[in-house]
Write a sequence for this structure.
């Protein structure tokens, strides 16, 4: 009797394994949903739609983009973390949702280190430090000296409390000794407009977001937080060239993830499709024109980056006195 039961269980196990293998081999067999944790428009949405469309072509099934914004990416991340781990629900989110939110919320409904399988980094988006051109400063060193000569008189605009803009500029302030007072705005656009209008002395933004203002003289670019100069702004020095270093003004990224326990072969297939999509000529050109840099790093590399980011941003949040919500 025991032998019969044992054989039956073994046979059942083999059947389940065979069914799982078959499902993985035929993946995908229906449309996939790509949840973007930010609103339509902007770098996150452009990345999702450009890369998602190409991935759908490569995989033979459409990738349907669904924007689910709210709470610095928290809403979208939480929704995907609770989805079925079958590869049909993907997440696109950014550095803030994965590296900053663990220190910003006392009760985060997802754990970036355990609730996702990472597909990889899709694009990176460097930040340009721009200032009001009516200021006398023309270099990063001159901005530092000007701020010290007039303590408390210069402010900078961010995209909100604990945004990448605030944390990056606070890191820059600590690194090179610039005296700037924080003023939060409701998004990158309003922060940039504040500098154009002379309400704020400085902010950071994506190259595409400030390119027109720089070209017509309404903003002055002092540095870009990237290892090499941007083809959109070839005359703007990197932060290292301007006197900073690679650990300040770090770029954001947009990355793909799926729920934890998604089978490894499915994750691998999604990564391969994602990497091929960002390397496709028509996709990469569209991204670069928008100031986004095609990436393609693996899920393992992304997880290692998240592990480094969480304590890094926690230190900045604690040093600036930001209270978790």
């Amino acid at each position: 009797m025991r032998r019969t039961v044992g054989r039956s269980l073994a046979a059942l196990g083999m059947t389940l394994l065979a069914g799982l293998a078959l499902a993985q081999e035929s993946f995908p067999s229906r449309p996939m949903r790509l949840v973007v944790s930010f609103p339509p428009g902007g770098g996150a949405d452009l990345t999702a739609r450009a890369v998602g469309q190409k991935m759908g072509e490569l995989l033979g099934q459409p990738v349907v983009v669904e924007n689910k914004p709210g709470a610095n990416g928290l809403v979208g991340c939480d929704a995907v973390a609770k989805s079925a781990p079958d590869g049909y629900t993907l997440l696109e989110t950014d550095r803030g949702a994965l590296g900053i939110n663990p220190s910003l919320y006392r009760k985060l409904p997802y754990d970036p280190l355990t609730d996702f399988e990472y597909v990889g980094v899709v694009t990176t988006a460097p930040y340009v430090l721009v200032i009001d051109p009516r200021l006398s400063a023309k270099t990063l060193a001159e901005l530092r000296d000007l701020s010290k000569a007039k303590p408390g008189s210069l402010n900078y605009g961010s995209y909100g409390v604990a945004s990448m803009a605030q944390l990056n500029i606070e890191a820059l302030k600590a690194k090179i000794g610039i005296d700037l007072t924080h003023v939060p705005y409701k998004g990158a656009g309003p922060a940039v407009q504040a500098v154009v209008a002379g309400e704020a002395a400085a902010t950071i933004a994506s190259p595409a977001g400030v390119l027109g203002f720089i070209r017509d003289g309404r903003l002055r670019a002092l540095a870009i937080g990237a290892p090499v100069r941007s083809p959109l702004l070839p005359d703007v020095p990197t932060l290292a060239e301007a006197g900073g270093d690679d650990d300040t003004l770090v770029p954001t990224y947009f990355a793909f993830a799926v729920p934890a326990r998604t089978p490894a072969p499915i994750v691998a297939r999604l990564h391969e499709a994602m990497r091929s999509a960002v390397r496709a000529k028509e996709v990469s050109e569209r991204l670069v024109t928008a100031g986004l840099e095609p990436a393609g790093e693996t899920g393992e590399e992304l997880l290692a980056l998240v592990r480094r980011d969480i304590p890094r941003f926690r230190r900045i949040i604690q040093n600036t006195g930001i209270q978790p919500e």
About this structure: The chain has a mean pLDDT of 90. The two ends are 59 Å apart (CA to CA).
